[in-house]
Model the fold of this input.
Amino acid sequence: MFYALFLFCVLFFTYNEKLAYSVDISENLPFTPDILYQNYNALWSTIHGLEQVIHEQTQAIANQQQQLDAQQKIIAKLPRFCRGQTKVDQWQPYSGGSGIEVYVNTSSCQFKRVPTYLTSLSGHTEHWTVTGMTSIYAETSTGFKVYMHRVRGTETALQTMNLLTMRQWKLNWIGIIQDE
Done:
């Protein structure tokens, strides 16, 4: 019986030592409550710093959006341009007499109302001898007409048409609209 009591005490104290060892782990781990507290404070400080950066970036984005909105308002007030050039084969004899005419289709510009049209005539030769190229007729938001005739010489509309390929007459145009 004595032997059993002795064995019981040895096992009991051995078990309690192991239990004490396994419960008191703070001295064997690389962190202590002080270190945990310091890490908590460092983490909280980092989170607070990130919140501050996010706030500043959000404010910067809002400021940039305000600037963009202001620039878009300015751009909306600027005139809008669309331009083009007729081809030599677009000219037709003028049905009302001598001269030639061209219809300029501006529908690709998608003007919502009638713009201001400006024209000029380019070519290889003799385009200085005609008149009417800057006179706009029947202007709409989708096009206009120009009539030209020679002021020098007695050329008929048919003769002018036959010489267009050699002369390479093209009507250059610009449509300008503001506050559309």
User: Anything to note?
Assistant: The mean pLDDT is 83. The radius of gyration is 45 Å. The first strand starts at residue 80 and ends at 85.
